[in-house]
Amino acid sequence: MIFESHAHYDDRQFDPDREELLSSMGANGIGRIVNVGSDFAACRHTLELARKYEFIYGAVGVHPSDIEDLNEDVYEWLKETSSDPKIVAIGEIGLDYYWEKDPKVQSYQRYWFCRQMELAREVSLPVIIHSRDAAEDTLKIIKGIHGDEIPGVVHCFSYSPEIAEEYVKLGYYIGVGGVVTYKNAKKLKETVAKIPMERILLETDCPYLSPEPNRGKRNSSLNLSYVVKAIAELREITEEEVQKATYENAFRLFSKVK
Ligand code: NI
Q: From ligand 1's centre to the CA of 156, what distance in Å?
């Protein structure tokens, strides 16, 4: 069984066949899915999906590229919603300096990242962190607010093996998806080979980042078998071992999942 730790089935790209696709997950070995909110609409849709499908759980939070959606009312909504039995994490939250170069907006991202980290602490949920071109500031913020007390995963990890080690020391998990199958993903391959197996989670970030041989096409959790295969090769263990370890890791992190 596979635990998919990061999907966006609320995305418009799934409108034509969402029901059919989600209904096929169990038969294809996908045991649990965490659907992750990005903007406010996606968070509401995530809650609907989590309530509709037994094997789907949700994370609510606002992505750094969508922080214009955040205000005190939405923050209160996130807080209330986080007590729903199917909501298992706050996310995705973080910093994205790749798409946002304006220092003023970047500081606004840092403000809401801190607020949402504090929310996670308050409601005792783990966090799902998005961090792109902002390695230093992300770590600085986590260390500054004693973020090691808040369990979490750095999703779609894109930094060096050295930075992965720092997160692992803080108790964080590393989310690994389709990128690990790409020929040019040297840093990620090195990271996956090096970090403790107890810290790796499987994820797609679907509909984005399809693994080889489906790169460029719409992604779904059904492609995770390619990610499992790549990790097994890098660590020289069996695919079953990868599935089992990552499944247990996800249950450990998302402790509300049944
Ligand atoms: Ni995502």
A: 8
Q: For 4-31, write each residue's pLDDT tens digit.
A: 999 999 999 999 999 999 999 999 999 9
Q: Where are the beta strands (DSSP E) in the chain?
A: 2-7, 30-36, 56-60, 87-96, 127-132, 152-154, 173-176, 200-202
Tokens for 239?
């695919």
Q: How far apart are CA 106 and CA 142, in angstroms?
A: 16
Whole-number Å distance, alpha carbon 173 to ligand 1 midpoint, is 15
The alpha carbon of 139 and the centre of ligand 1 are apart by a number of angstroms equal to 19
How many A from CA of 196 to the centre of ligand 1? 23
CA distance 144 to 125: 19
Peptide bond into 100 cis (omega under 30): no
Calculated CA dihedral for residues 135, 32, 206, 78, nearest 10 degrees: -60
- CA 67 to ligand 1 centroid distance, Å: 15
